[in-house]
Amino acid sequence: MSTPVLLRHPSSLDHDTGSHPESPRRIVAIERALEQRDWLGFDVRLSEPAQRASIEALHPARHIDRIEALCARGGGMIDMDTIVSPGSCVAAHHAAGGAVQMVDALLADERAGIAASLHRPPGHHAEAERAMGFCLLNNVAIAAQHALDACGAQRVMIFDWDVHHGNGTNALFAQRDDVLFCSIHQSPLYPGTGPASDVGSGAGEGYTVNLPVPGGSGDAVWCSLAEHVVAPLGRAYRPDLLLLSAGYDAHADDPLAGCEVSDDGYRAMAASVRALAGELAIPLGIVLEGGYDLGALSRCVTLTLETAGDAEPPAAPEVAVHPLAEQAATRLAESYWPALAGD
Ligand SMILES: [Zn+2]
User: Fold this and answer.
1) pLDDT at 253
2) What confidence score (pLDDT) does residue 250 get?
3) Greatest CA span in the chain, whole angstroms?
4) From 9, 93, 94, 125, active-site residue
């Protein structure tokens, strides 16, 4: 396998949110932890800002213009949670551009097997015309669209393990079958979307897979869903690219949510994802989303990159089948994904 690639940019520190959990300190903590490990052997590169055309493939020009205008006026609140400062526009363009460049490294340029884009602001709550939930542009969705438009991918799978439902990504691809969106998220919780009954619509019916879990869910639930539902879905869908919307706010230490995933749980989920990519012989791209306890965030990003970047793909982890995973697999097998029967 060629050297894994990591995209970053100092503009991530210029998105000034004041006393907000989604703060520049998140990137500082992650980069300090990775630096102490010599970046785990990743080839570290500065991201370019996204081309306007890459963003406009999913977000209308007026959405980008509105954010640019707000930045130019000195910033302000978009909603109760979402803040824009003078540096946010450049930061958001690099966050999207890093994800696009990650896809180029995976599919177009040197065909790196593994790459990561570690920027802020995060992206998975951003809808086509609506910034929300700390997110301005939907970085992982822009990356998926770029893979389809410019890199010859026919099918892309996005696995979102952030504790919040990725409503933006869900909405952007709800009516399409060329992107399989699969999310594990705590419910009820912000933003209140993502019931199991939301399966997409039209040509996309069945290609949105929502796996809500109750507050208090820990490794037994999350790792079982990753290994016994998400991985079999990937085997059935056979994507050309696997993208991970990697949030770390399902961690037991996270202040914003109520799940109980441990460091070992993130390591196991990362092993499931990496093993799936290895089995399908497809590249894996990791895009940072949330995660607000700086210790848990920096440790678990490190564990994810360590597990993903290992030259020898890990074996799929030994994870017991939790009843919630069994129910989800049965439901999917009976509806859109017969291959999940008895997995
Ligand atoms: Zn989140």
Assistant:
1) 98
2) 98
3) 57
4) 125
CA 215 / ligand 1 centre spacing (Å): 14
What pLDDT sits at residue 82?
Answer: 95
Task: Specify the pairing of strand 76-77 against strand 83-84.
Answer: antiparallel
Task: Name the pTM for this structure.
Answer: 0.98
Tally the residues of the chain: 343
d(CA 163, ligand 1 centre) in Å: 5
Q: Return the pLDDT at 1.
A: 63
Cα–Cα separations (whole angstroms), residue 60 to 56, 64, 133: 5, 7, 19
Tokens of residue 217, six digits: 């869910």
Mean pLDDT by 10 residues, the chain (343 residues): 92 95 98 98 98 98 97 94 96 98 92 94 98 98 98 98 98 98 98 98 98 98 98 98 98 98 98 96 97 98 96 88 98 97 73
Q: How many A from CA of 161 to the centre of ligand 1?
A: 9
Which pLDDT score, from 0 to 100, does residue 312 have? Answer: 83
253 touches 297 (CB < 8 A): no
Q: Count of alpha carbons within 13 Å of 215, Cβ hemisphere only?
A: 8
Q: Could you tell me the distance, in angstroms and rounded to a whole number, from the CA of residue 191 to the centre of ligand 1?
A: 10
Catalytic residue flag (residue 165): no
Residue 342 confidence (pLDDT): 72
Neighbours of ion ligand 1 (CB under 5 A): 162, 164, 247, 249, 290
